Amino acid sequence: MSGTRRPAVPKAVLFDCDGVLADTEALHDRIMAEEISRLGWEITPEEGARLFRGLAWEAIGPQVEQRLGPGSVPADFLPQLIARVVRALEDEAQPVHGVLAALETIVAAGIPVAVASNSSRPELATKLRRLGLVETFRGRTFSVNDVERPKPAPDMYRAAAAACGADPQDCVVVEDSIAGARAGIAAGCRVLGFAHEGSAAALRAAGAEPFFAMAELPGLLGLTPVPAG
Predict the structure, then answer these.
(1) How many CA atoms are closer than 13 Å to the CA of 211, on its beta-carbon side?
(2) Which residues contact 4 (CB under 8 A, 6 or more apart)?
(3) Count of C-beta atoms within a 10 Å radius of residue 200
(4) Bridge partners of 190?
(5) Which bin fits 165, alpha (ψ -120 to 50), beta or left (φ > 0)?
(6) Are strands 113-116 and 190-194 parallel, antiparallel or unpaired?
(7) What is the 3-state secondary structure (H, E, C) of 74-128?
(8) Could you report the per-residue pLDDT of 43-95, keeping only the tens digit for each?
(9) pLDDT digits over 141-164, tens only?
(10) Which of 115, 121, 183, 203 is most buried, judging by how many CB atoms fall within 10 Å of its CB?
């Protein structure tokens, strides 16, 4: 049609979880800031988000210890942090606005989907169960515990593409973090960056194509027309 364009339809769509499927970023930021502050580094959720969002939990402890000194992070810090997050997720996890409808359109078009998250396996399982997406992603779910290297390494998205039977070059990654965008680009995928809180410029600099509402996603995947820009 005149005035519209359709991108190539991907062979698979690979989703991050937090901030893309599950609206849980604020929950994570709050709990992480509280637990780190208990160790003696008083940070706000906003500061924690700027420093740690998108990283694997295992990457946070060493950074805290670098700030507070050797031995400042107890051995049980990470397990207790994850356990507290999982308890909160059971009650608080909600879908990102519009993502369930976008997923329905993608799946109805016969496109395989996978989820790849720097969350621990228990966290990711809890989020998917809470959102009613266990069956949608069954057999194509990847946590930080399922690959050798977390994001920003490409391992997770390469594994997700393989689970969908697709070459990474034929896949689209949907991300909202810089670490995740870099992982998708390094894997060889096209990356759509779900931008919020002023993150569009940083996502674009990481190689992603920013977008601002999940209702846009089917059009960006070539499933529905989008206005020519």
Answers:
(1) 18
(2) 225, 226, 227, 228
(3) 17
(4) 172
(5) left
(6) unpaired
(7) CCCHHHHHHHHHHHHHHHHCCECCCHHHHHHHHHHCCCCEEEECCCCHHHHHHHH
(8) 999 998 888 887 777 888 899 999 999 999 999 998 998 889 888 888 888 99
(9) 999 999 999 999 999 999 999 999
(10) 183
